[in-house]
Amino acid sequence: MGVGRFKKGGKLDKVDVKILEGLALYDHRNKTKLAAHLHMSRKTLSYRINRLRSHFSLHIQGNIYHTNIGLRKAFIIAKSKPGYEELLHQCLKCNDYWLYVSRCIGVPACIATYGIPAGKESEFQDFINKLAEFDLVSDVDFFWSTSIHTVNATGKWFDETSEEWIFSWNSWLKEVQMEHGALPYTLKEPKEYIQKADWIDIMILKELEKNSTIKLKEIAKKLGTTLELIRYHYRNHVIKKQMFEGPQILADHYKGLFPDTCFFIFTFKNHENFTKFAGSLMDKPFVRAIGKVYGKNQLFVRIYLSRQQTKFFLDALSKLVRTGFLETYEYMIEDSTRTQRQTISYEFFKNNTWEYDHKKYVKRLQSAIKQFARTA
């Protein structure tokens, strides 16, 4: 297994990659300081960022640490019977607390992420059980997880001389074996889920989640309040109480090379191997998000790679299985044209607590299935 190369051919150049890295490493909300760090003018930086937005689908979203606002992450992998894929996609959104839903390619299945109010775990489990009872579903895998750790764009495997992505999978295999270090707090299982936010905090988080570069004065204007109040809540609540993890820098940095987004689940025999593997992914350009399955040595990872390099990645994983480092893995290819996401369900945050209407979600689920049957 050797080195994979991507020829430039109008792709990102070294300045683009440095900007993507800089947006994650430095204060992405202050273009003047960011431009100084990158040794370019503010005008050039603005031009380059706009170019990345228009040509490489650059999005700068915000990541919320759901644990500190009383929400617990849940993942669902549901397989439908052939012909019911779209219905399953709609059914998974019958619960207002969905965050991400995606259909898969090659198998009639959907992947969904939820942020469920702490204390409502049994009700959500019942919602999933109700879904599994219907004839449209052939199988449902459900698990609770830690928060999601975002891995932002990095030039770790970008050669500035040739301006090509170079993937040395053999070097990565050695790195996995030698990796040392602790897990970030986002991948540690919390002892409790404390709701630390008030209404203004939730509204700030909702806006940051949509666009992490939004100015605080714009949030103040949207909420009809003063900049001073928003600034106070942002500094003393959102940041100080660790409700906000930071920006998520998303860009199609393999554009034109037939990239796929794959959802992987890795299972390890022990926590040491789990930690080593997770640590080796923290600065890799093919990783977008990492999470830990609660109570198990399992890791789920959203991988973004060209189809050619995905084959090399699978070969590397096979070697890890044969050596006993990795117990097993499974993956699904996501359909980017049938992927939806939404912010936290701020509409249901009232009197500093989350309202969860289980009966409404079950009725909505039953109604969606009945409506589909009538239409069909």
Write up this protein:
With 376 residues, the chain is of the alpha+beta class. The chain folds into two domains: 1-8 and 59-197 and 241-376, Alpha-Beta Plaits (2-Layer Sandwich), CATH 3.30.70; 198-240, Arc Repressor Mutant, subunit A (Orthogonal Bundle). It has twelve helices and 16 strands. It has helices at residues 14-25, 31-37, 42-56, 85-91, 121-133, 169-178, 199-210, 216-223, 227-239, 271-280, 307-322, 358-375, and strands at 3-6, 59-64, 71-80, 98-105, 109-117, 137-145, 149-150, 158-159, 164-168, 244-250, 259-267, 287-292, 298-306, 328-341, 349-350, 353-354. The longest helix has 18 residues, at 358-375. 36% of the residues are buried.
Strand residue percentage: 25-35%
Largest beta sheet: what is the strand line-up?
6-3-5-4-14-11-13-12-7
Global mean pLDDT = 92
Tell me the number of strands.
16
Uncertain stretches:
5-9
Could you say what the CATH architecture of the largest domain is?
2-Layer Sandwich
As a whole number of angstroms, the C-alpha radius of gyration is 21 Å
Distance between the termini: 50 Å
Output the structural class.
alpha+beta
Helical content stands at 25-40%
